[in-house]
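Please produce the structure of this protein holding UFG.
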Amino acid sequence: MAKILLTGGCGYIGSHTAVELINAGRDVVIADDLSNSDKSVIDRIEMITGKRPDLYVSDLKDKKECEKIFDENDISAVIHFAGYKAVGESVLSPLKYYRNNLDSTLSLLESMRSHLCNTIIFSSSATVYGTDGVVPYTESAETGGCSNPYGWTKFMIERIICDTVLANPDMSAVNLRYFNPIGAHESGLIGENPSGIPNNLMPYITQVASGIRDHLNIYGNDYDTPDGTGVRDYIHVVDLAKGHLAALEYAEKHKGTECINLGTGVGYSVLDVVNAFNEANHLDLPYVFAKRREGDLASYYANPKKAYELLGWKAEKTLVDMCKDSWRWQVYLKNSENKDGGK
Ligand code: UFG
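Below is the modeled complex.
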């Protein structure tokens, strides 16, 4: 059976997508350099689905390694998650980000061409709407004006994919523009596990709740939003993963490139998330208001209509689901670290 290649498939969104694809009867092969993930995620995908995806520990920038995966497997489509993703680090080390994120995509597209693999789904981001976008973001809105190199790599890769498809009419692509994925699989076996101090809100919250960090800093309470804190479109990672399956099914039937938002269309403030987390898990999270974080926007969320019209997909899970599942995963992490003697 033809296989679906997930680059970065051991990561947060990739692993949840692997589960949804396997549950839908797809054969999955994962390529990951494990730079920001652990290969034990393969065991846990197997525990959830009963099927073990093949893993290539590969650096896709290396053309030979990339070719090997295509030589050894009949790949009918690629879902491309692999890439560095820390906004702050990308500002400090732009060349590292451009080299890694762009080179791996170029190798991948070249291997796809030489092996007549015509379908690609790309892990893009709402960050491509830049800093001047009009809320809610609609796909036809102008892109660019990104505030950091990470965002520009997403913008550039969208362009590279679009041009490749334009030149090769037998190809199809979907650039999925994610909003703010949080939550974890309801089994509690896979989730987000950032190394070092988390940049993003939910991993920070769960680490405070489990005692790893002292308190949450809420970056700014003087924004022009209902309670003064930043507003985002949080989407459950399992809903997001299902969006990839829907996009794949769409791309298998159509040619050309589409850019599609994956969000809920609803904005929640930082305080909304903290309150929902406390209520869902019967906790009382310590927080302080801190100054605004550089580069943050006050408020943005998706117009999710196109995803529904084209893919028949919409987000189903609630903020309470996201908070409960994130916490269940953090508890699993803590217990497994205790079992490993604190490793
Ligand atoms: N926040 C805090 N305290 C924290 C962390 C975050 O108050 O410790 C606030 C932020 O100021 C913001 C909100 O929580 O208002 C969400 O912040 P995140 O860092 O979780 O997410 P961002 O919206 O900043 O960034 C996300 C992705 C990026 C992507 C960007 C734009 O992490 O990859 O959306 O789409 F580029």
